[in-house]
Amino acid sequence: MSTDQSSVATSSGTATATPGRTRRGPELQKFALLGALLLLFLAFFIATPNFLTISNISGILLAASVTGILALGTNFVIATGGIDLSVGTGMTLFSVLLAVLGTSAHIGLPLPAAILLTLVIGALVGMFVGFLVSYMKIPAFIATLAMMMATQGLSLIITSSTPQYFTEHAWFRQVATGQLIPRIPNAVFIFAVVALVAWFLMNRTLVGRYAIAIGSNAEATKLSGVNTRRWTMYIYMTAFVFTAVAGIVMASRLNSAQPALGVGYELEAIAAVVIGGTSLAGGRAAIGGTVIGATLMATLNNGLQILGIAQEWQRIAVAIVILIAVWGDSVRRNRAAS
């Protein structure tokens, strides 16, 4: 048996031993999340009957799709005990690159080819960030903070701070906003497919198993024969591919690339991840919970907007949700330790 294969058994055992003993905990947490989501729906419906219209629910699902895809990728990084502050501006950069590659008179690639190239670039950027974290030993917080600033600046430089439109590709907008099933945006189905892919990667591949193992005990994982630096780089690469997918979906949703967009999405993505049950300390990930968490965040933002709450107060509400989620994560970890 090779080193990697033997270490899979070790890390898999480490990752699954605790959930096996406390299997009811995560399941109860998911039911509690669903209950909180339903209560939130009920509260906003009581406050304004316009909340539960079909068009508004469709808008919530569309917004949850982008945030959710970002959160699914962020899951892999947070599972290692790291953090990614660049997902929002990274999403914007990838949407800008797609527009430049697919609509520029100087490049003008066929849009499907531009989409594939954008995903490849996303993987390369993620590999670079993973290299900074794993080989250069730069803390994930600093590395991704620097990347957040760099991607924000690059988006503005590449476009000269001018929005880029996909006017020559009428079909592209239908990728996210079209409706194969009436009243349900296609972005929802993309989100569902991406969630299934994320679940498979997290639970059935080395990327997910090593993310959990590194987050649980990086030193023990290294001593078991796993090249933790190389796999950390792969984990960040995986996460940034999800960010690139979110950028493509966002570009389709807006039918444009908005270079000033993106700041704030990282907070919502992290909140969705933590609310969903992934531990900020690493060692645990919850893909299903993240899907619910993203929907809850989108519902909260939508409901506050319908109620006419000023955007600055919406930011405060999101901050409160993040604090509650982190406090809940701390309580769970303390109970598990005792």
Structure description:
The protein is mainly α and 338 residues long. The chain has one domain: ABC transporter involved in vitamin B12 uptake, BtuC (Orthogonal Bundle), CATH 1.10.3470. The protein has helices spanning 3-21, 24-47, 54-79, 87-103, 111-134, 140-159, 174-177, 186-204, 206-223, 228-254, 265-275, 287-306, 311-337, and strands at 164-165, 256-257. The chain has a two-stranded antiparallel ribbon. Helix 3 (54-79) crosses helix 12 (287-306), helix 5 (111-134) runs antiparallel to helix 10 (228-254) and helix 9 runs antiparallel to helix 10. The radius of gyration is 20 Å and the shape is globular.
Strand order of the largest sheet: 1-2
By CATH, the topology is: ABC transporter involved in vitamin B12 uptake, BtuC
Derived structural class:
mainly alpha
Task: Look at the structure and give the CATH class.
Answer: Mainly Alpha
* Percent of residues in β-strands: under 5%
Radius of gyration: 20 Å
- Could you say what the CATH architecture is? Orthogonal Bundle
Uncertain parts: 1-22
Topology as a string of helices (H) and strands (E): HHHHHHEHHHHEHHH
The best one-word shape is globular
Instruction: Characterize the quaternary organization of these chains.
Output: single chain
Number of strand elements: 2
Query: Average pLDDT value?
Result: 88
